[in-house]
Structure to design on (430 residues):
């Protein structure tokens, strides 16, 4: 069966082969053992947690400020800005353009900001989430998804991921740079936020952070802001709702757990002669199309990343040591390869056993971003401020709960098995 035939695959076909996975000798037992190990590891790390706090007094001040906020003025206005400030705005715009070329340049820009200013927790969170965005982009041209999705569908999904990635960068990166410039000059420059079309919602958050240096309220504000920023511009956009969100692909995502965000956080044990495998933490986002769920998902990722010392230490080391390329070989070279070792086969041969490569099997192809997709012109954001009232945002600032289970090393191996079996289902056409 050719790759384009995979578009016609239905849930029954793939569901049949996913059930076959647990029918394999020992697979159900291995999965149960792995699940128990992941839960135990999560609970062990939670016992060491230092939960993040959203101080009630700070949230009260922000609530008062938001209740008096009005929509951000047109970003084109320069009234009242000094010549020096206008020069700074031009410089930051040039840095945005340089960083917004593709997912790799954005991801590295976030990393650089975090290591210069570690109090900006959101920058490290954005770096790791952006890494996952890049891996999702290259998956579309990698070993498996071309069997499951046609060319037009893959291009639409890439556009969806790229637009969201680029718009968030375009909105958030100037905020981070303005903070860095404020530090250099020893004075708040957040009155310049409107020059970059930033929502009126963010000015009180940055001004409060400038006064008290509390990272958690600012990080939650950035999570709320960026998800609202892309809600109408991407998630609710008619093109993406028709071509991406309302398609079989998004149902397939939940079925195969393709919508997981993973953070490599530590070294596992060597299995015989196999390479040492990185441990993975992370979460699964069930319904991307729901704004509330995306925001709470981002908060849980943040609570896990900065509230669990073992996860934070491992992620920080990984981010510092491993340059992002878009290939999943960045974190799993024992499973993935950036370059095919052999030409693509007309019939896919099963290579995985329990989330590991079978003896002598060729690694799974996972290209770098530059080999998978060309650079796209950055989107021109639609004007307008999403922020309307304090009542809509304040509930997000009441708590920062830790997820109860987030260790994903074994779950991730199971996910890979599911995807491979889906490819086999397409070929056999049952």
């Amino acid at each position: 069966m050719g790759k384009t035939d995979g578009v016609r695959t239905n849930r029954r076909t793939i569901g049949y082969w996913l059930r076959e996975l647990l029918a394999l000798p020992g697979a159900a037992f291995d999965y149960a053992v792995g699940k128990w190990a992941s839960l135990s590891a999560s609970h062990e790390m939670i016992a060491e947690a230092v939960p993040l706090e959203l101080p009630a007094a700070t949230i009260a001040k922000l609530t008062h400020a938001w209740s008096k906020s009005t929509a951000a003025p047109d970003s084109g206005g320069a009234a009242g800005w000094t010549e020096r400030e206008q020069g700074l705005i031009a410089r930051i715009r040039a840095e945005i353009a340089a960083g917004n070329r593709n997912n790799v340049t954005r991801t590295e820009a976030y990393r650089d900001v975090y290591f210069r200013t570690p109090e900006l927790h959101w920058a490290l969170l954005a770096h790791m989430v952006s890494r996952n965005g890049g891996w999702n982009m290259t998956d579309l041209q990698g070993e498996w998804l071309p069997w499951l999705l046609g060319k037009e569908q893959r291009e639409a999904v890439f556009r969806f991921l790229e637009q969201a990635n680029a718009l968030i960068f375009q909105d958030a990166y100037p905020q981070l740079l303005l903070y860095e410039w404020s530090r250099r000059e020893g004075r708040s420059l957040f009155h310049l936020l409107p020059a970059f079309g930033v929502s009126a919602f963010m000015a009180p958050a940055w001004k409060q952070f400038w006064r008290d240096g509390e990272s958690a309220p600012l990080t939650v504000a950035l999570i709320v802001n960026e998800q609202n920023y892309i809600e109408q511009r991407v998630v609710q956009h008619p093109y993406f709702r028709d071509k991406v969100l309302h398609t079989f692909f998004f149902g397939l995502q939940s079925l195969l757990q393709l919508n997981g965000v993973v953070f490599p956080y530590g070294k596992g044990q060597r299995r015989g002669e196999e390479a040492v495998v990185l441990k993975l933490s992370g979460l699964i986002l069930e319904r991307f199309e729901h704004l509330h769920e995306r925001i709470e998902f981002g908060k849980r990722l943040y609570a896990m990343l900065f509230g669990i010392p073992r996860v934070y230490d491992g992620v920080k080391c990984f981010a510092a040591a491993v340059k992002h390329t878009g290939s999943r070989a960045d974190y799993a070279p024992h499973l993935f390869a950036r370059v095919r070792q052999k030409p693509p086969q007309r019939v896919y041969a099963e290579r995985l056993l329990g989330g590991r490569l079978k003896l002598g099997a060729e690694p799974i192809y996972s290209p770098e971003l530059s080999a998978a997709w060309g650079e796209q012109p950055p989107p021109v954001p639609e004007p307008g401020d999403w922020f309307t009232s304090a009542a809509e945002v304040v509930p997000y600032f009441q708590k920062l709960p830790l997820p109860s289970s987030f260790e994903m090393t074994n779950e991730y191996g199971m996910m890979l098995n599911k995807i491979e079996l889906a490819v086999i289902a397409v070929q056999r056409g049952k």
